[in-house]
## 1
Amino acid sequence: MAELLPQELRILVAVAEAGGFTAAAAALGLTQSAVSHSVRGSEAKIGAVLFDRGRGGASPTPAGERAVGHARRILRLYEVMGAEARGAGRDTADGVLRVAAFRSAALHLLPPALERLTARHPGIRPEVRVVRELGAGTAGEVAAGRADLAIATLGDPADLPPGLLAGVLREEAYALVHPVGHPDPRTLPLLDWDENCGSYTRAWWRAQDWIPRATVKAEDDAMVLTMVGRGLGMAILPHLSLREAGESVDITDLGPGRPVRKVGYVTAPECASTLAVRALIRELRSEKG
């Protein structure tokens, strides 16, 4: 296959992000015909249709999604090249470090690690995006080239986007959370949120005949905790979420068979060898609690 030039990669990314050739051309300062010609050339080199064209614009095909993800990651390597070269021989890093994390990890796990990271490497500028763990989740941000590293809930290795690397940072148990002082919390309605109950808890969940169907599904775990504290029901939440529990709730252990989830990092092979990503992984591994 003929190699795509950096400008061709930028055009693919721009079309995907702008949703059409005309908007991408405006963003890049090019003509619409130049963008269209470039995309056709890239499709010929790759041997696949990358965008579905229509009156509403252009959207990536499955092949296009994969190609655009690789394009972002390749372009990111051009950006990282300078930072890596400047840090050579000094064992230090600088430049932007893009991190994707689910809400409770971004709130409780990342800040102390980033504080230590930037103290040791003042030139690193972290950019953190909170991404819901639904669909592709935080790992999908790495696969799509929008993040250098993700904090993710790790389940079946087969669920990880192909070609990515992952490592476990911690394992945390789920617990029953309920209004303080309630005599029989298992009789309460269940409150839940869409990101809860991944592949690591489904088997346990199905085996519990005392857990009813959720009467309320909230936007996130913080909303669930708030509603539990208001006496609206009980919930089953992991440790990171329970760090926000206040005096209005009690936390009860679910026993020796309680579900446990793995929280870890996900990165791409080309990012895993960079100074900034390696340094952040070290800080995350040293995080306790």
## 2
Amino acid sequence: MRLTLRTDYAFRLLVYLARHEGLDRMTIRHIAERHNVSHNHLVKVVNDLCHHGILVGTRGRNGGVSLARPPKDINVGHVVRLMETEGEVIKGCAPLQGRPCVLADACRLRHLARQATDAFMAVLDGMSVHDLLS
């Protein structure tokens, strides 16, 4: 199981904004420098989170980003589903060289991976960004 860099950036951003809730908007550049991450990649994550109503972004001289709602109202599982656009978080098996696996009818790995993904997401669905704060 491996979460993508998009998800990592999303949670860095959300936790950082949650820890500084109530302060002025933060610029993407400031957050990227603070976390030593790619500004361009962070912009894409911010755009997605703004599009889905998790962040509020303001352009211009006094612009920046802030949480659209309190951290306790931002579900971790929902954010993971938004960021993980590749489908399953836990992959069971993949076709070899474009051909289906010859063991597919007898193997339960794909089913087990689906169960593991469901259990993983159930835990994340029970958490909010507020729960990630120490």
## 3
Amino acid sequence: MDVKMTPQLERVLRVFLEDVAAPRYGYELMKAAKLASGTLYPQLTRLEHEGLVASHWETPTEQSQRPRRYYRLTGEGVRVARLEIAQLSQNRAQGVPGTGRPATGGTA
């Protein structure tokens, strides 16, 4: 699987890897990864298309709630995310040009 690692994608994957069993909804991911919806949702769509993320809609339990779409890494997604993050960390430790510092904040 060929994943083009960007600082924004790194932030999304790190959020997912904090608890791989926890489904995350879009707004929660936006806040945790500090990304705008226009950056986050295309990434989620691409990851889902590649089989690295699965999603499902949750039906609201109360009438006042809106439906939420939840995302989580697939087994392959967990494997790829861990490998990509490990490779990125190793490249940074070795001073590989273009890997920069870890993404810690800001918006896309």
## 4
Amino acid sequence: MAVQDVGGVQVMVCPAEGEALAGEQQAVDLLGDAHYQGASWVAVPVARLGEEFFRLRSGVAGAVVQKFAQYRMGLVVVGDIAAHVERSDALRDFVRESNRGGQLWFVADLPELAGRLAN
């Protein structure tokens, strides 16, 4: 995992392959790496998120987002989540509200993230 300047902000960009972000422990591990490397945001590809993350009832997304909020670090989900959103009104609302805030964003790609961070 490498920290990159994205839109003028230090972002730890996770590769598509690797351990899934499946709960609090993986979130804490990512947070530790990101903090050590001087990042203020972590970008996680959709491929690194299990189905449970997108099933809000499972509590996985809530637990992960809570850890990031607790450590004051932003989390960005990068990639196409259209299929997940189509299956769940609750997820669609969660994504819309998250994208209005400053803690969790869902973006299609890094150029979209760069545009958001630059503003």
